[in-house]
Design goal:
With 384 residues, this protein is mostly beta strands. It has helices spanning 85-88, 138-141, 154-164, 188-199, 279-286, 305-321; strands at 37-44, 53-60, 67-73, 94-101, 107-120, 128-134, 144-152, 168-172, 178-187, 201-206, 209-214, 222-226, 233-238, 246-253, 258-265, 276-278, 324-331, 341-345, 353-365, 369-378, 380-382. A hairpin with a 7-residue loop joins strand 5 (107-120) and strand 6.
Length: 384
Protein backbone atom coordinates (compact mmCIF):
# COMPACT_ATOMS: atom_id res chain seq x y z
CA UNK A 1 0.00 0.00 0.00
CA UNK A 2 1.42 3.35 -0.97
CA UNK A 3 2.22 6.26 1.32
CA UNK A 4 -0.60 8.52 2.53
CA UNK A 5 1.04 11.67 1.27
CA UNK A 6 2.92 10.65 -1.83
CA UNK A 7 4.05 13.40 -4.19
CA UNK A 8 2.98 11.55 -7.33
CA UNK A 9 0.34 8.97 -8.21
CA UNK A 10 1.21 5.39 -7.26
CA UNK A 11 0.07 2.69 -9.65
CA UNK A 12 -1.65 -0.37 -8.24
CA UNK A 13 0.35 -3.57 -8.53
CA UNK A 14 -0.02 -5.43 -11.81
CA UNK A 15 -3.15 -7.58 -12.03
CA UNK A 16 -2.58 -11.32 -11.94
CA UNK A 17 -3.06 -13.48 -15.01
CA UNK A 18 -6.24 -15.52 -15.05
CA UNK A 19 -9.36 -16.46 -16.97
CA UNK A 20 -12.17 -13.97 -17.62
CA UNK A 21 -13.89 -12.99 -14.37
CA UNK A 22 -17.09 -14.60 -13.19
CA UNK A 23 -18.81 -14.32 -9.81
CA UNK A 24 -16.73 -16.48 -7.48
CA UNK A 25 -18.67 -19.65 -6.59
CA UNK A 26 -19.04 -20.18 -2.87
CA UNK A 27 -17.77 -16.69 -2.08
CA UNK A 28 -18.11 -16.46 1.73
CA UNK A 29 -20.76 -14.20 3.15
CA UNK A 30 -19.14 -11.22 4.89
CA UNK A 31 -20.60 -11.46 8.38
CA UNK A 32 -20.23 -7.72 9.05
CA UNK A 33 -21.61 -6.26 5.82
CA UNK A 34 -23.94 -8.95 4.42
CA UNK A 35 -23.20 -7.45 0.98
CA UNK A 36 -21.89 -10.52 -0.82
CA UNK A 37 -20.12 -8.14 -3.24
CA UNK A 38 -18.69 -10.79 -5.52
CA UNK A 39 -16.90 -8.95 -8.31
CA UNK A 40 -15.72 -5.65 -9.72
CA UNK A 41 -16.96 -4.56 -13.14
CA UNK A 42 -15.23 -2.12 -15.47
CA UNK A 43 -17.85 0.14 -17.09
CA UNK A 44 -16.94 1.78 -20.41
CA UNK A 45 -17.99 5.19 -21.66
CA UNK A 46 -21.06 3.84 -23.48
CA UNK A 47 -22.31 2.14 -20.30
CA UNK A 48 -21.33 -1.38 -21.30
CA UNK A 49 -19.13 -3.69 -19.21
CA UNK A 50 -15.61 -4.43 -20.40
CA UNK A 51 -15.78 -8.01 -21.77
CA UNK A 52 -13.29 -10.78 -20.99
CA UNK A 53 -11.99 -8.90 -17.92
CA UNK A 54 -9.10 -10.78 -16.28
CA UNK A 55 -8.25 -8.54 -13.32
CA UNK A 56 -8.78 -5.05 -11.94
CA UNK A 57 -7.15 -3.13 -9.10
CA UNK A 58 -8.29 0.25 -7.69
CA UNK A 59 -6.01 1.98 -5.20
CA UNK A 60 -7.04 5.07 -3.24
CA UNK A 61 -5.13 7.31 -0.84
CA UNK A 62 -5.58 10.85 0.46
CA UNK A 63 -4.21 13.86 -1.40
CA UNK A 64 -3.31 12.02 -4.60
CA UNK A 65 -5.06 10.62 -7.67
CA UNK A 66 -6.94 7.36 -7.30
CA UNK A 67 -5.50 4.85 -9.78
CA UNK A 68 -6.99 1.88 -11.61
CA UNK A 69 -5.16 -0.87 -13.49
CA UNK A 70 -7.07 -3.48 -15.47
CA UNK A 71 -6.37 -6.31 -17.89
CA UNK A 72 -8.60 -8.19 -20.30
CA UNK A 73 -8.31 -10.97 -22.85
CA UNK A 74 -7.03 -9.97 -26.27
CA UNK A 75 -10.03 -11.63 -27.87
CA UNK A 76 -13.61 -12.18 -26.75
CA UNK A 77 -13.93 -15.44 -24.83
CA UNK A 78 -10.36 -16.12 -25.98
CA UNK A 79 -11.82 -16.92 -29.43
CA UNK A 80 -12.19 -13.93 -31.74
CA UNK A 81 -11.64 -10.15 -31.86
CA UNK A 82 -13.82 -7.98 -29.64
CA UNK A 83 -15.77 -5.80 -32.06
CA UNK A 84 -15.64 -2.01 -31.54
CA UNK A 85 -13.63 -2.20 -28.34
CA UNK A 86 -10.65 -0.13 -29.52
CA UNK A 87 -12.81 2.99 -29.79
CA UNK A 88 -13.91 2.67 -26.15
CA UNK A 89 -10.67 1.49 -24.54
CA UNK A 90 -8.51 4.34 -25.77
CA UNK A 91 -6.53 7.28 -24.41
CA UNK A 92 -8.77 9.92 -22.86
CA UNK A 93 -11.90 7.76 -22.72
CA UNK A 94 -13.87 7.63 -19.50
CA UNK A 95 -13.92 4.49 -17.39
CA UNK A 96 -15.67 3.50 -14.15
CA UNK A 97 -15.36 0.57 -11.77
CA UNK A 98 -18.35 -0.73 -9.84
CA UNK A 99 -18.61 -3.32 -7.11
CA UNK A 100 -21.48 -5.59 -8.09
CA UNK A 101 -23.22 -7.39 -5.26
CA UNK A 102 -25.74 -10.20 -5.31
CA UNK A 103 -27.86 -8.55 -2.61
CA UNK A 104 -27.21 -4.86 -3.22
CA UNK A 105 -27.11 -2.19 -5.91
CA UNK A 106 -23.79 -1.53 -7.69
CA UNK A 107 -21.39 0.73 -5.76
CA UNK A 108 -19.14 3.12 -7.70
CA UNK A 109 -15.54 2.93 -6.47
CA UNK A 110 -13.69 4.58 -9.39
CA UNK A 111 -14.43 7.22 -12.02
CA UNK A 112 -11.58 8.39 -14.23
CA UNK A 113 -9.86 8.66 -17.58
CA UNK A 114 -7.60 6.16 -19.39
CA UNK A 115 -3.98 7.38 -19.49
CA UNK A 116 -2.08 4.19 -20.37
CA UNK A 117 -2.60 1.22 -22.71
CA UNK A 118 -0.49 -1.88 -23.28
CA UNK A 119 -0.36 -5.52 -24.29
CA UNK A 120 1.28 -8.52 -22.67
CA UNK A 121 1.85 -12.10 -23.75
CA UNK A 122 4.16 -15.09 -23.46
CA UNK A 123 4.84 -18.44 -25.09
CA UNK A 124 2.62 -20.16 -22.53
CA UNK A 125 -0.23 -17.67 -22.03
CA UNK A 126 -2.64 -16.08 -24.50
CA UNK A 127 -2.15 -12.34 -25.11
CA UNK A 128 -3.90 -9.84 -22.90
CA UNK A 129 -4.36 -6.10 -23.02
CA UNK A 130 -3.80 -3.75 -20.09
CA UNK A 131 -4.92 -0.26 -19.20
CA UNK A 132 -4.17 2.41 -16.60
CA UNK A 133 -6.63 5.11 -15.53
CA UNK A 134 -6.62 7.94 -13.01
CA UNK A 135 -9.29 10.22 -11.61
CA UNK A 136 -9.60 13.99 -12.10
CA UNK A 137 -6.65 14.80 -9.80
CA UNK A 138 -4.16 13.46 -12.35
CA UNK A 139 -4.05 16.68 -14.47
CA UNK A 140 -2.90 18.57 -11.34
CA UNK A 141 0.17 16.31 -11.21
CA UNK A 142 0.89 17.18 -14.85
CA UNK A 143 0.78 20.98 -14.38
CA UNK A 144 3.79 22.80 -12.91
CA UNK A 145 3.93 26.55 -12.26
CA UNK A 146 5.20 29.37 -10.06
CA UNK A 147 2.91 32.08 -8.74
CA UNK A 148 1.90 34.00 -5.65
CA UNK A 149 -1.64 34.34 -4.29
CA UNK A 150 -2.44 37.24 -1.96
CA UNK A 151 -4.88 37.65 0.93
CA UNK A 152 -6.45 34.21 0.65
CA UNK A 153 -7.24 31.39 3.05
CA UNK A 154 -6.03 27.87 2.16
CA UNK A 155 -9.59 27.01 1.07
CA UNK A 156 -9.61 29.97 -1.31
CA UNK A 157 -6.25 28.91 -2.76
CA UNK A 158 -7.78 25.46 -3.35
CA UNK A 159 -10.70 27.09 -5.13
CA UNK A 160 -8.36 28.99 -7.48
CA UNK A 161 -6.53 25.77 -8.37
CA UNK A 162 -9.78 23.86 -8.88
CA UNK A 163 -11.01 26.52 -11.30
CA UNK A 164 -7.73 26.28 -13.24
CA UNK A 165 -8.64 22.67 -14.04
CA UNK A 166 -12.35 23.13 -14.65
CA UNK A 167 -13.31 21.52 -11.35
CA UNK A 168 -16.12 22.69 -9.12
CA UNK A 169 -15.21 22.94 -5.44
CA UNK A 170 -16.71 21.84 -2.12
CA UNK A 171 -14.23 23.10 0.45
CA UNK A 172 -14.19 23.43 4.21
CA UNK A 173 -10.56 23.62 5.30
CA UNK A 174 -9.28 25.31 8.45
CA UNK A 175 -6.75 28.12 8.19
CA UNK A 176 -6.77 31.90 8.46
CA UNK A 177 -6.22 34.51 5.73
CA UNK A 178 -2.61 34.63 4.58
CA UNK A 179 -0.87 37.70 3.20
CA UNK A 180 0.77 35.62 0.50
CA UNK A 181 0.73 31.96 -0.55
CA UNK A 182 3.61 31.06 -2.85
CA UNK A 183 3.65 28.21 -5.36
CA UNK A 184 7.29 27.88 -6.38
CA UNK A 185 8.02 25.56 -9.34
CA UNK A 186 5.58 23.00 -7.94
CA UNK A 187 2.96 20.93 -9.63
CA UNK A 188 -0.56 21.95 -8.73
CA UNK A 189 -0.90 18.62 -6.94
CA UNK A 190 2.25 19.18 -4.84
CA UNK A 191 1.04 22.71 -4.06
CA UNK A 192 -2.28 21.43 -2.68
CA UNK A 193 -0.52 18.61 -0.84
CA UNK A 194 1.70 21.15 0.93
CA UNK A 195 -1.22 23.42 1.82
CA UNK A 196 -3.14 20.40 3.14
CA UNK A 197 -0.24 19.36 5.35
CA UNK A 198 -0.03 22.86 6.81
CA UNK A 199 -3.67 22.71 8.00
CA UNK A 200 -3.98 18.92 8.51
CA UNK A 201 -6.45 18.68 5.66
CA UNK A 202 -7.30 16.12 2.99
CA UNK A 203 -8.62 16.53 -0.53
CA UNK A 204 -10.11 14.20 -3.11
CA UNK A 205 -12.39 14.29 -6.14
CA UNK A 206 -15.82 12.93 -7.01
CA UNK A 207 -16.20 13.09 -10.75
CA UNK A 208 -15.32 16.69 -11.61
CA UNK A 209 -15.75 18.07 -8.08
CA UNK A 210 -12.80 18.81 -5.78
CA UNK A 211 -13.55 18.30 -2.09
CA UNK A 212 -11.38 19.22 0.90
CA UNK A 213 -11.91 18.89 4.64
CA UNK A 214 -9.96 18.74 7.85
CA UNK A 215 -8.64 15.18 8.01
CA UNK A 216 -10.72 14.46 11.11
CA UNK A 217 -13.88 15.77 9.41
CA UNK A 218 -13.63 13.81 6.15
CA UNK A 219 -16.91 11.90 5.76
CA UNK A 220 -17.02 8.12 5.52
CA UNK A 221 -18.91 4.99 6.46
CA UNK A 222 -18.89 3.72 10.03
CA UNK A 223 -18.29 -0.02 10.19
CA UNK A 224 -17.58 -2.68 12.80
CA UNK A 225 -15.24 -5.58 12.04
CA UNK A 226 -13.90 -8.41 14.14
CA UNK A 227 -10.24 -9.24 13.58
CA UNK A 228 -10.93 -12.92 14.18
CA UNK A 229 -14.17 -13.25 12.24
CA UNK A 230 -14.11 -10.67 9.40
CA UNK A 231 -10.45 -10.06 8.54
CA UNK A 232 -8.57 -12.67 6.54
CA UNK A 233 -5.26 -11.09 7.56
CA UNK A 234 -4.21 -8.19 9.77
CA UNK A 235 -1.33 -6.52 11.55
CA UNK A 236 -1.74 -3.76 14.14
CA UNK A 237 1.04 -2.00 16.05
CA UNK A 238 1.41 1.04 18.30
CA UNK A 239 4.81 2.61 17.59
CA UNK A 240 6.33 5.51 19.54
CA UNK A 241 9.29 6.03 17.19
CA UNK A 242 7.26 8.38 15.02
CA UNK A 243 5.83 10.35 17.93
CA UNK A 244 7.08 13.55 19.61
CA UNK A 245 5.95 15.28 22.79
CA UNK A 246 5.71 18.69 21.17
CA UNK A 247 5.95 20.42 17.81
CA UNK A 248 7.74 23.68 17.15
CA UNK A 249 7.66 25.48 13.81
CA UNK A 250 10.41 27.97 13.11
CA UNK A 251 10.80 30.17 10.09
CA UNK A 252 11.52 33.58 8.68
CA UNK A 253 8.82 36.00 7.63
CA UNK A 254 9.93 38.11 4.63
CA UNK A 255 7.00 40.43 5.26
CA UNK A 256 7.73 41.03 8.95
CA UNK A 257 11.52 40.75 8.53
CA UNK A 258 11.64 38.65 11.69
CA UNK A 259 12.01 35.12 13.00
CA UNK A 260 8.79 33.25 13.71
CA UNK A 261 8.40 30.45 16.23
CA UNK A 262 5.35 28.57 17.50
CA UNK A 263 5.21 25.51 19.74
CA UNK A 264 2.36 23.19 20.76
CA UNK A 265 2.11 20.02 22.84
CA UNK A 266 -0.41 17.24 23.40
CA UNK A 267 -2.89 19.66 24.98
CA UNK A 268 -4.10 20.48 21.44
CA UNK A 269 -5.29 16.86 21.02
CA UNK A 270 -8.84 16.23 22.16
CA UNK A 271 -9.27 12.75 23.60
CA UNK A 272 -11.28 10.51 21.28
CA UNK A 273 -12.50 8.16 24.04
CA UNK A 274 -12.44 7.88 27.85
CA UNK A 275 -9.39 6.20 29.33
CA UNK A 276 -7.33 6.57 26.14
CA UNK A 277 -3.89 8.14 25.82
CA UNK A 278 -2.33 9.65 22.69
CA UNK A 279 1.11 8.92 21.29
CA UNK A 280 2.64 12.24 22.43
CA UNK A 281 1.21 11.73 25.92
CA UNK A 282 2.44 8.14 26.12
CA UNK A 283 5.90 9.18 24.97
CA UNK A 284 6.06 11.74 27.75
CA UNK A 285 5.65 9.01 30.38
CA UNK A 286 7.74 6.26 28.75
CA UNK A 287 11.25 7.59 29.47
CA UNK A 288 13.00 10.17 31.56
CA UNK A 289 13.11 13.75 30.32
CA UNK A 290 16.60 13.71 28.72
CA UNK A 291 15.47 11.02 26.26
CA UNK A 292 12.43 12.96 25.07
CA UNK A 293 12.71 15.15 21.98
CA UNK A 294 10.52 17.83 20.39
CA UNK A 295 10.04 18.04 16.65
CA UNK A 296 11.39 21.30 15.22
CA UNK A 297 10.80 21.52 11.48
CA UNK A 298 11.94 24.71 9.78
CA UNK A 299 9.42 26.33 7.48
CA UNK A 300 9.81 29.30 5.18
CA UNK A 301 6.05 29.51 4.88
CA UNK A 302 4.63 31.27 7.94
CA UNK A 303 3.76 34.86 7.21
CA UNK A 304 2.68 35.62 10.76
CA UNK A 305 2.40 34.19 14.24
CA UNK A 306 -1.14 32.85 13.76
CA UNK A 307 -0.06 30.99 10.66
CA UNK A 308 2.94 29.50 12.46
CA UNK A 309 0.71 28.28 15.30
CA UNK A 310 -1.70 26.69 12.81
CA UNK A 311 1.19 24.85 11.14
CA UNK A 312 2.56 23.56 14.45
CA UNK A 313 -0.85 22.29 15.62
CA UNK A 314 -1.53 20.64 12.25
CA UNK A 315 1.81 18.86 12.18
CA UNK A 316 1.37 17.48 15.69
CA UNK A 317 -2.18 16.26 14.99
CA UNK A 318 -1.04 14.55 11.79
CA UNK A 319 1.92 12.91 13.54
CA UNK A 320 -0.19 11.75 16.49
CA UNK A 321 -2.74 10.15 14.17
CA UNK A 322 -0.08 7.66 13.03
CA UNK A 323 0.58 6.30 16.52
CA UNK A 324 -1.39 3.06 15.99
CA UNK A 325 -1.24 1.58 12.47
CA UNK A 326 -3.43 -1.20 11.11
CA UNK A 327 -2.97 -3.16 7.87
CA UNK A 328 -5.74 -5.61 7.04
CA UNK A 329 -7.43 -7.59 4.29
CA UNK A 330 -10.93 -9.00 3.98
CA UNK A 331 -13.36 -10.26 1.40
CA UNK A 332 -14.44 -7.38 -0.79
CA UNK A 333 -16.33 -4.52 0.84
CA UNK A 334 -16.84 -1.41 -1.33
CA UNK A 335 -17.85 0.68 1.70
CA UNK A 336 -14.25 0.74 2.91
CA UNK A 337 -12.88 3.97 1.47
CA UNK A 338 -10.42 6.57 2.69
CA UNK A 339 -12.04 8.42 5.60
CA UNK A 340 -14.21 5.51 6.77
CA UNK A 341 -14.23 4.81 10.51
CA UNK A 342 -13.82 1.12 11.27
CA UNK A 343 -14.22 -0.25 14.79
CA UNK A 344 -11.83 -3.20 15.08
CA UNK A 345 -12.47 -5.65 17.91
CA UNK A 346 -10.60 -8.74 19.11
CA UNK A 347 -7.10 -7.24 18.96
CA UNK A 348 -6.76 -6.86 22.72
CA UNK A 349 -7.99 -4.16 25.12
CA UNK A 350 -5.07 -1.84 24.40
CA UNK A 351 -5.39 -1.78 20.60
CA UNK A 352 -9.08 -2.42 19.88
CA UNK A 353 -11.09 0.64 18.93
CA UNK A 354 -12.01 2.96 16.07
CA UNK A 355 -9.49 3.34 13.25
CA UNK A 356 -9.65 5.87 10.43
CA UNK A 357 -8.98 4.38 6.97
CA UNK A 358 -6.00 6.05 5.26
CA UNK A 359 -5.50 3.88 2.18
CA UNK A 360 -7.50 1.22 0.30
CA UNK A 361 -6.90 -1.29 -2.48
CA UNK A 362 -9.89 -3.03 -4.10
CA UNK A 363 -8.87 -5.90 -6.36
CA UNK A 364 -10.49 -8.76 -8.23
CA UNK A 365 -9.02 -11.61 -10.22
CA UNK A 366 -10.16 -15.12 -11.01
CA UNK A 367 -7.72 -16.69 -8.53
CA UNK A 368 -8.71 -14.85 -5.35
CA UNK A 369 -12.05 -13.21 -6.14
CA UNK A 370 -12.85 -9.73 -4.80
CA UNK A 371 -10.63 -8.59 -1.92
CA UNK A 372 -10.25 -5.31 -0.06
CA UNK A 373 -6.94 -4.44 1.60
CA UNK A 374 -6.71 -1.29 3.68
CA UNK A 375 -4.53 0.73 6.01
CA UNK A 376 -5.95 2.64 8.95
CA UNK A 377 -4.63 4.52 11.96
CA UNK A 378 -5.58 6.05 15.28
CA UNK A 379 -3.79 8.32 17.72
CA UNK A 380 -4.62 6.65 21.03
CA UNK A 381 -4.31 3.39 22.94
CA UNK A 382 -6.13 2.34 26.06
CA UNK A 383 -3.33 2.49 28.57
CA UNK A 384 -3.18 0.15 31.48
Amino acid sequence: MSSDRGSSPQLPSAPEQGTPLRPAPGHPRHSATQLQATLLRVILEDGSSLPSLLAVVVEEGPNRPTGCRFSFAESGDLGGPISGLDALVDFGRRLKVEAQGLESDPVLIFDGIIYGLGRRGSSTDPPRREGIAFDALQPLEMTRRSRSLHDLTPSEAFRVTAADHGLSADLDLPGSVRDVIVQGAETDLAFLQRLSQEVDGEFWVKGSRLLARSAEDRPGERLTLSAGRDLTEYRVVADLTGQRESMEVRGWSPLLKSVLSASVDASVLTSMSPGAISGPERLATAWSSPLRRPERPVSLGPGGQTEAEEMASSRLRSMARGFVELEAELFGDPRIRVGARVHISDVGPRLSGVFRVSGVRHSHNSLRGYRTAFRANRREVHDG
